[in-house]
Amino acid sequence: MIKSAETARERILTAANKLFYAEGIRAVSLDTIAEKAGITKKTVYYHFKSKDDLIEAYLASRDQPNLNQFRKWFGEAEGELPDKVQAIFRQIAVSARHPKWKGCGFLRTAAELANMPGHPAMKVGAGHKKKFEAWMAEEFEVAGIDCAPDLARHIVLLLDGAFSTILVHRDASYAEAAGEAARALVSSAVINQAA
Amino acid sequence: MIKSAETARERILTAANKLFYAEGIRAVSLDTIAEKAGITKKTVYYHFKSKDDLIEAYLASRDQPNLNQFRKWFGEAEGELPDKVQAIFRQIAVSARHPKWKGCGFLRTAAELANMPGHPAMKVGAGHKKKFEAWMAEEFEVAGIDCAPDLARHIVLLLDGAFSTILVHRDASYAEAAGEAARALVSSAVINQAA
DNA sequence: AGAAGTATACTCACCAGTGAATATACTTCA
DNA sequence: TGAAGTATATTCACTGGTGAGTATACTTCT
């Protein structure tokens, strides 16, 4: 029956999500994932062609949820455009203070797979980041800001910088610093627009 | 004899540098490193307590050379303070266009070891990044800029953001975008200082 | 001789992936 | 309708290979 098949596949994906994110791609074996999912490794191979295939599926499963999270933080924030952008960074700081936080799964996977630039998971990761950047650019465009794509890229750089530095220092306040910088850049763009 | 001991140790470290950077920490075995260094694995274990110990030594060996590289780029750049900061990002863009470029070794190692926050290599990596930040802050301080530490942190965020996004997209132009943002932040700080 | 350094040859655990068999449910046709 | 056949989903047990780390012995230099 289709229902139960999807349940098994989802259990694998859920286990992969937790383990890959918590421990890293290469640190986690399919045996471990299978065990956590409560099934046999062969079943993993029934649903996924290979470990690489599962890695790709893991990232793909995070694409929309992550983007929606950012959209929500941005959309629900009070204030003007700079405040709304800053809010994203503030929320990241909050998340990063949770003990289970281990950075951005996309970035960490990219770091681990840096020696395999053509890896399908890398494409998913790059696509995810591009979507975020495009969304930011669109928000800036709608707000009537000049050079919206440039500003969006600057925000992306601060965002990924925040993910990276927080991980290195285990200090979530870097997200707040990034939020200040982002706010300054957006504010300055808003002023230019008015001129 | 000390001389030959250091020679063997250095050969190990050289091999570890190349392989860890090119392939990643967990993707490279000590067998591979020993082979590349032209010695046996046992000799590796004579000079290094464990793989973790070698990972730490690998990062430690990159600390000063990397910092010196940044100092050189900054020091030799023409122009005012914003130009000098921007020059660092321009040079990173140049480096990142080389096919062997695989991001920042410190950041990638931190990503791989995210599940081991107390790992000695993580401390070395965090220390390295702190040194960069402190150096930047000092340069800003000397230039008489207000809130020099804050600005330095913003530059660090853009720098590590550049490393990360270039790696994800395989597009060195992100470094140039980061350089523009950095320039804008420094310029704006210089103006405030004048006021 | 003896200490430092290196090599041979090994252990034990784990890992990605597979072969063969089985259970379950859906389809087809007499 | 119900038996036979087929696709889906799953398990157990395994393989070839590699991983970190080690016991022991040989070499070389002082």
UniProtKB/TrEMBL annotation, chains A, B:
DNA-binding positions: 29-48
Organism domain of life: Bacteria
Molecular function in Gene Ontology: DNA-binding transcription factor activity; transcription cis-regulatory region binding
Pfam families: TetR_N (PF00440)
Keywords associated with the record: DNA-binding
Signal in keyword set: no
InterPro entries in alphabetical order: Homeodomain-like_sf (IPR009057), HTH-type_TetR-like_transc_reg (IPR050109), HTH_TetR (IPR001647), Tet_transcr_reg_TetR-rel_C_sf (IPR036271)
Domain HTH tetR-type: start-end pairs: 6-66
Keyword DNA-binding annotated: yes
PANTHER family: HTH-TYPE TRANSCRIPTIONAL REGULATOR RUTR, HTH-TYPE TRANSCRIPTIONAL REPRESSOR BDCR
Name of the protein in its database record: Transcriptional regulator, TetR family protein
Annotated organism of origin: Roseibium aggregatum (strain ATCC 25650 / DSM 13394 / JCM 20685 / NBRC 16684 / NCIMB 2208 / IAM 12614 / B1) (Stappia aggregata)
